[in-house]
Amino acid sequence: MNIFKVAWRNIWRNRSRTVITVLAIVVAVFLSTVMTSMQEGTYSKMIDNVVKFYSGYIQVHHPDYWKNKNINNTFYPTDSLLHTIQNTSGITDVEVRLESFTLLSTGNQTKGAALIGINPVAENKLTNLSHWIESGKYLEPGDDGILIAYNLAKNIDAKVGDTIVLISQGYHGASAAGLFPVRGILKFASPTLNNFGAYIDLGQARNFYSAYGLATSVVIMIDDDNNTNSVKRDLQNKLGDNYGIQTWDEMQPEIKQMIQADRSGGVIMKAILYLIIGFGIFGTVIMMVSERKRELGVMVAVGMQKTRLALILLLETLYLGIVGVLTGFAISIPIIAAFVRNPIPLPAEMAEAYETFGLEAAMYFSAEGIIFIRQIIIVFIITMLIGLYPVMKAKNLKLSNSLRA
Hints:
alpha+beta; six-stranded mixed beta barrel; 56% helix; 2 domains; single chain; two-stranded antiparallel ribbon
């Protein structure tokens, strides 16, 4: 215990130097933690938009469906199939959809978009779709109406109560045409989704496409995003090659690529911050060792073992890192917690740029424990590596040279 006390007292012998070093670590830890929190919060929100507004975490398709999304590549979502999926560990919600391309027209305005047949109750449980009704009302089971995304409705000049003409190609070349009254206008937080398409009742979609009893996908929600791949493997073992099973990042690879590219840029910035930490601690350690060279020689001369001396110097280095990290966390945790509860809205110009990429115009933060644990591990590794310098100096200490210093 005396070793720990001596090391602690030693770092405060030169208070101003210790405070400056600790402050450098605090600033770097704070900036790195906040930056990582903002990145992970933004990624989580981006994934949440994709998963909860459309794709789900996993989808089950006909093996050939995803290549061209042809209405002919459908399958029967039998009770036994749905029972097998629902009883797979980690799966929380399941919903059947029938989706294809259609032309929507009012007057002289025509626009192509996705038309998704849904079970209104199951869909609302899965994606909370009714929350995004900007005007009108949500679909009832068996409803013969249609919900249209905001920008799509604007482009064809459709309002609640108007009747829209839908024209498409049905199952196995059957003609598909129908009139659907607009029940509601959907306005999502993500601009991309506002251009996406329209929703009708699943039964109405099957009648429209002449795809009776068929589905293009079974959409699956799970309890934890980290379990996505393991749930997919379980489903593949159960369903075999009769179905195509895809995760959200396989269906939306551009989202994954965007996240990976952004993470790479963040790594460079954080590497610079960690270099600041490293050089700050290393400079302090060099000065501590060099100005105490005579003192260290005297301690060895009166009988202190070099191993014991090296341990004291290593502890001094670790104390600098620990104090800096804990102080940085003490400052960053309440700030991050506040930002998690209250995302930062972006200025108009930045908001427009974000919306171009289909992102919500706000900076989101994450308070996941791994964000903080990662900083602890990295700073600990840095301080341990720097701590090797005084250890080697103590081990190679030449008594005659030290006493004359």
